[in-house]
């Protein structure tokens, strides 16, 4: 199993100081395709959570048969469009998106990244789902020097508040509107997710021409890979064995 870091997280580095610190969602999909090509990996099962879920889905949208199976955790497909319909509940859940579009939010991301992200961990899932050691270990990924710029751009671009990198203009056009995917797809969503409400992943069957399944995990919040790893792994293995 390979688990690449997203741009701006952990050990990743931009090769040039002149490269825009973009993290538009199309770029995440393109990064994954370039990662697979560099390692000469053909049609692996693609599994991702949140930003990672958008990356694996967009990779499949940019290249047919990029993966043998697609698994999206805590995110519904077809949610890249800045004009998408949002319920008021989901708009409330996305408070941090709007916050980061302001100077005060930018300051929080740049100057208090651990306090800001800790707020997410404490409010996106039922209480006491992680230990201090868990958080400290994960938070080292936020120490990347490009993390703040990448995060701010990703959310600002997502809602049309910042321009994208022209290098990804063709990919953006390919992904909006969201293309129909033929890859067998599984969506796993926590019933107690207060970041992306589970309703946000319902009614997506029209986007899939191949096998498609959605499973809601009871008493699980936004982080099924940490909150219910055995249930999550079991569902993924079952789906990959059955769907073709």
Automatic annotation (TrEMBL):
Say yes or no: keyword Magnesium present.
no
Per its UniProt entry, which superkingdom is the organism in? Answer: Bacteria
Stored SUPFAM superfamilies = alpha/beta-Hydrolases (SSF53474)
Q: Which residues form the AB hydrolase-1 domain?
A: 3-228
Under which name does UniProt file this protein? Pimeloyl-ACP methyl ester carboxylesterase
Q: Which InterPro entries does the UniProt record give?
A: AB_hydrolase_1 (IPR000073), AB_hydrolase_fold (IPR029058), Epox_hydrolase-like (IPR000639)
Q: Which organism is it from?
A: Caballeronia udeis
Database matches in PANTHER family: EPOXIDE HYDROLASE (PTHR43329)
State if Hydrolase is listed as a keyword: yes
Record keywords, A-Z: Hydrolase
């Amino acid at each position: 199993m390979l688990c690449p870091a997203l741009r701006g997280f952990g050990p990743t580095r931009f090769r040039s100081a002149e490269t825009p610190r973009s993290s538009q969602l199309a770029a995440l999909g393109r990064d994954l395709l370039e990662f697979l090509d560099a390692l000469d990996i053909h049609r692996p099962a693609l599994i991702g959570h949140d930003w990672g879920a958008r990356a694996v889905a967009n990779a499949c949208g940019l290249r047919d048969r990029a993966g043998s199976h697609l698994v999206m955790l805590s995110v519904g497909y077809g949610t890249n469009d800045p004009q998408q319909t949002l319920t008021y509940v989901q708009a409330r859940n996305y408070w941090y998106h709007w916050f980061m579009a302001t100077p005060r939010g930018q300051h929080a991301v740049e100057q208090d990244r651990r306090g800001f992200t800790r707020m997410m961990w404490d409010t996106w899932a039922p209480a006491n789902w992680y230990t201090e050691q868990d958080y400290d270990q994960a938070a080292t990924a936020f120490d990347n020097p490009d993390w703040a710029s990448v995060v701010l751009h990703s959310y600002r671009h997502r809602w049309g508040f910042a321009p994208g990198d022209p290098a990804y203009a063709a990919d953006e056009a390919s992904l909006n509107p969201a293309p129909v995917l033929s890859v067998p797809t599984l969506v796993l969503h926590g019933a107690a997710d207060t970041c992306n409400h589970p309703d946000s992943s319902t009614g997506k069957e029209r986007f899939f021409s191949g096998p498609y399944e959605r499973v809601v995990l009871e008493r699980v919040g936004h982080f099924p890979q940490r909150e219910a790893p055995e249930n999550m792994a079991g569902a993924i293995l079952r789906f990959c064995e059955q769907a073709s």
